[in-house]
Amino acid sequence: MSTNIEILENTLGYTFKDKQLIIEALTHKSYKQPYDNERLEFLGDAVLDLIVGEYLFTKFKKSDEGNLSKIRASLVNETGFDKLARSLNLGEYIFLSNAEQNNGGREKSSLLSNAFEAVIGAIYLEAGLSRAGSIAIGLIEKNHKEISLDSLFRDFKTTLQELTQARFGITPEYKVMSSRGPDHKKEFEVAVFIEDKEYARASGKSKKIAQQESAKQAVELLKKEK
Amino acid sequence: MSTNIEILENTLGYTFKDKQLIIEALTHKSYKQPYDNERLEFLGDAVLDLIVGEYLFTKFKKSDEGNLSKIRASLVNETGFDKLARSLNLGEYIFLSNAEQNNGGREKSSLLSNAFEAVIGAIYLEAGLSRAGSIAIGLIEKNHKEISLDSLFRDFKTTLQELTQARFGITPEYKVMSSRGPDHKKEFEVAVFIEDKEYARASGKSKKIAQQESAKQAVELLKKEK
């Protein structure tokens, strides 16, 4: 059984009128009740897409829809919501079966992310878009130091470093493999090495952009290897 | 230049306070203005996902999130929005370049669907979710006779028949190829033929389900062939 839901409500800054609604949002399907949080997750997923979409639409008035989509995709995904769920200690409050609990359910990204979506869906149902929006955006702003296209790129290098340190105990090395074109239109080719093995190679208008792109590819590769 | 926007506002049942907003929603990027409808389309896309998601969430209280997603996907897509856009004669009002116009731009599904999303995004920005929702749902209910999982299936057979009649002047033929299993757990295998050529084959717990699934596959195949 979970700890007191009031503590979660305090952390969220929202008190549910209908306690059954928050219980449903916190109920994993393994708990075998006549309800679970999957329908609320379906709703919350769309609520969060709109909340974050509108936030970025307003914040980045000069960004085209391609860049808005990219930034949103970096925030609205399992890893992003898992982070927000953990900031609320959501895992402690989820109702799940003993089997799922023993299987590390309270620590699973998918489970945490889904429960977070369901909680936002529940707030939306009871209090509307604006209230759900201020709670979700508050959490996002607190848990993401900077929200921009630049920070997305920076994140790939940070993510890669975190991954290689955890897995190999070392930091990745970036090497400029070639550069071509006149000064005002240079293209740099950068490769990223981990333990002297090349993991990815990418080109860009600056070394920084090429590094970031190669880091992104290496992260994807390492995640697949795992 | 487009015809009078007032007529569109009458059809929509919504009068814009900020006329620039509806002009932006109707401006294709080919029109070469400092603005176009792509950012509003980004917003409207998320607005429609939530509007239709919540509508289905409320309408189908017993449906799980998998079925809700399927029904939504059948409504929230280019073909679905193209239908709604045409019901508003949206093509007549879109601002586009002469080149795009001569290229049949006013009849393009993608262009119409994107403009529809942008118009809903614009109404949302000015009047909020509830107003955008009642307008969008009104259009959806008027243009889709029945909204349910059953009607989705039926739609595949109808769609296939429309396609084959337009392209080959004939109707598709369904044949039961095999059935197996005990009576209470039978599986039927059905193939769909067009001009005696097998286009797709699928299995299901009833002939109807297998027909519907094979029709779906044949539709996808025919759309690729084109």
TrEMBL record, chains A, B:
- The answer on whether this UniProt entry bears the keyword Metal-binding reads yes
Q: Where is the RNase III domain?
A: 5-128
Q: What reactions does this protein catalyze?
A: Endonucleolytic cleavage to 5'-phosphomonoester
Q: Tell me the cofactors it needs.
A: Mg(2+)
CDD domains xrefs: DSRM_RNAse_III_family, RIBOc
Catalytic-site annotation from UniProt: 45, 117
Query: What Gene3D superfamilies would the database entry show?
Result: 3.30.160.20, Ribonuclease III domain
**Which positions fall inside the DRBM domain?**
155-224
Q: What is its main location?
A: cytoplasm
Binding sites annotated in the UniProt record for Mg(2+):
41, 114, 117
Q: Which UniProt keywords apply?
A: Cytoplasm, Endonuclease, Hydrolase, Magnesium, Metal-binding, mRNA processing, Nuclease, RNA-binding, rRNA processing, rRNA-binding, tRNA processing
Query: Which NCBIfam families does the protein's record reference?
Result: RNaseIII
Give the quaternary structure. Answer: Homodimer.
What's the family? Belongs to the ribonuclease III family.
Reported function: Digests double-stranded RNA. Involved in the processing of primary rRNA transcript to yield the immediate precursors to the large and small rRNAs (23S and 16S). Processes some mRNAs, and tRNAs when they are encoded in the rRNA operon. Processes pre-crRNA and tracrRNA of type II CRISPR loci if present in the organism.
Please report the name of this protein according to its UniProt entry.
Ribonuclease 3
State the organism named in the record.
Sulfurimonas gotlandica (strain DSM 19862 / JCM 16533 / GD1)
- Which gene produces this protein? rnc
